[in-house]
Design goal:
single chain, 381 residues, alpha/beta, Aspartate Aminotransferase, domain 2, Aspartate Aminotransferase, domain 1, seven-stranded mixed beta sheet, five-stranded mixed beta sheet, 36% helix, 14% strand, globular
């Protein structure tokens, strides 16, 4: 019986592209956009998602997500768009968890109406509330766990079972967890999406997206996505493959640091609240123990108002004020001014995002240095 390789080994070796000519230790790069078409089983072209580098990295991501296959995209939102529009048409209905990435929410609010696609936003994480929204034309339930930026969790197994019971497709944005901390396919989720710009890239210098699923769904998405033009350049594919080799090491350190940071902020008198599933005070702490292997490197905390949040970000020195996440460096941002800026204040507050909230992506620096920077900035409020 073939034994599954460990996650560290998968990060390094899954989907290896062998250098047969020079026997190099790293994957060779094939940047060509023109391949022979004579006596081949399939025409190769970057937009067809089937160049040597694309296929090799897709295998690595599929292995990390315990899935059959994967696809690579030019951004996370391209992966999200393709996963949705490959399965829905005019007149269909999709159910979304309301507390999702602001870019996804903006896509739904701004674009669905152009195609006469209906949607429901569910404010709670109660399975019954999702079941109530299912209609005869519902095709997909789209979730995010932990959610961005409030770090709320939803029961993955229950959502997957609900979808299968009603012949729906379940999709999750797994960016915040990474494949190291959570594998939604183990709980029956159909399609797993990543903004590979974040943890998979890990160095704040790559823009990419990825999704993993079974071969049937991947083929459906591929056939549609060829027409959308959202494929990833092979140069970036090569860089992303290199980055993923250290993914498990980076995430382990970020998990460790984030738990310490969350505990420190939770006790700080200038901080009103902290959202982190690794805190026993978190309402979803027990659920996190059943479906997450690590609590992640993301947390959020709330100050009094936007002015105080802006003042704080101007006082930090080591931590960078930046709008992305998942890099080796610690970064912090205001969702009001970044990820959720394209939706109204009323819509933000409806899902629990208030102006004093700050989202913190904890890096791999020494914890004491991170803590000292937070403390000196908070002391000036």
């Amino acid at each position: 019986m073939k034994k599954n390789k460990g996650v560290d080994t998968k990060c390094v070796h899954s989907g290896d592209l062998i250098d047969d000519r020079f026997k190099g230790a790293t994957s060779p790069l094939f940047p060509s956009t023109a391949y022979d078409f004579i006596d081949v089983n399939e025409d190769k072209y970057p937009r067809y998602f089937n160049t040597p580098n694309q296929l090799a990295l897709s295998k690595k991501i599929a292995d990390l997500e315990n899935s059959e296959d994967a696809l690579l995209f030019g951004s996370g939102i391209a992966a999200i768009f393709s996963s949705l529009f490959s399965f829905i048409k005019s007149g269909d209905h999709v159910i979304f968890q309301s507390s999702i990435y602001g870019g996804t929410l903006n896509l739904v609010i701004k674009e669905f109406k152009k195609f006469n696609i209906k949607y429901s936003l569910v404010d709670s994480f109660d399975l019954n509330d999702y079941e109530k929204e299912i209609k005869s034309n519902t095709k997909i339930i789209f979730i995010e766990s932990p959610s961005n930026p409030l770090l709320k969790l939803i029961d993955l197994k229950s959502i997957a079972e609900l979808c299968k019971k009603n012949n729906l497709i379940s999709i999750i944005d797994n960016t915040f967890s990474s494949p190291i901390n959570q594998n939604p396919s183990d709980f029956g989720i159909d399609i797993i999406i990543h903004s590979a710009t974040k943890y998979l890239g890990g160095h704040s210098d790559i823009l990419a997206g990825a999704l993993a699923s079974n071969k049937k769904y991947i083929q459906t998405i591929k056939e549609s996505s060829i027409n959308y033009g959202g494929n990833l350049s092979d140069y970036t594919v090569w860089l992303l493959e290199r980055s993923i080799k250290t993914l498990s090491l980076r995430v382990a350190k970020q998990n460790e640091n984030a738990l310490k940071v969350a505990k420190f902020l939770f006790e700080h008198q200038k901080v009103n609240s902290v959202n982190y599933p690794g805190l026993k005070s978190h309402p979803d702490y027990e659920l996190s123990l059943t479906q997450m292997k690590g609590f992640g490197g993301m947390l959020s905390f709330e100050l009094n108002d936007l002015d105080e949040a802006i003042k704080f970000t101007r006082k930090i020195k080591l931590i960078k004020s930046a709008m992305s996440l998942g890099g080796v460096e610690s970064t912090i941002c205001s969702p009001t001014l970044t990820s959720h800026s394209k939706i109204s204040k009323e819509e933000r507050e409806k899902i629990g995002i208030f102006d004093g909230l700050l989202r913190f992506s904890v890096g791999i620096e020494d914890f004491e240095d991170i803590k000292n920077d937070l403390d000196q900035a908070l002391s000036q409020l």
